[in-house]
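Reminder: ligand-aware prediction takes two inputs, not one.
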Amino acid sequence: MSALRETMRHVPSSVAVVTALHEGVPVGMTVGSFTSASLDPPLVSFFAGNSSTTWPLIERTGRFCVNVLSAQQPQIATAFAARDADRFGGRDWTTSPLGSPLLDGVLAWLDCELHALHAVGDHVAVAGLVRGAHAVGDAKPLVFFRGELAALG
Ligand SMILES: Cc1cc2nc3c(=O)[nH]c(=O)nc-3n(C[C@H](O)[C@H](O)[C@H](O)COP(=O)(O)O)c2cc1C
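Here is what comes back for the chain with flavin mononucleotide:
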């Protein structure tokens, strides 16, 4: 393992699932790179790996929903990172105002239009224009730290 990879294991990250409705089919992927980027205009960002098979589908829709997971949702984080999983199978979700899948029970969600893309090494930096931002409740967040999904606190 490289020094960079080993060091970044010690930097905690939020855990979110980025979703879209691609030709009527819900798609989504777990990201640990979600962050706010700009207040005016309101932009958020995450990094998608160049080998991701889900990101190109989301990109084609031109919009996405960022579902920030709560401490009760580690199994969702794992499922949306697994290549051969039925990611939406058995899960409850509705549709956001922009038409992207909104998972039940999330901590917060942001309804975004695709704003800009920048190649960054083996990832692409995705900027989303925020059309709706919602904090749902006071549940604890899920964090990824030292290779494990855990509740904060
Ligand atoms: C905690 C966690 C954080 C992750 N963060 C990212 C990320 O920021 N960007 C990314 O492209 N993949 C990330 N992944 C991997 C993706 O969820 C997923 O494995 C990858 O997109 C392969 O699936 P796909 O081919 O359907 O895209 C993360 C996985 C986990 C478990």
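The pocket of flavin mononucleotide is lined by residues 15, 29-33, 46-49, 52-55, 77, 80-81, 83, 144 (CB under 6 Å). The chain has one domain: 3-148. We will return to this case in the review session.
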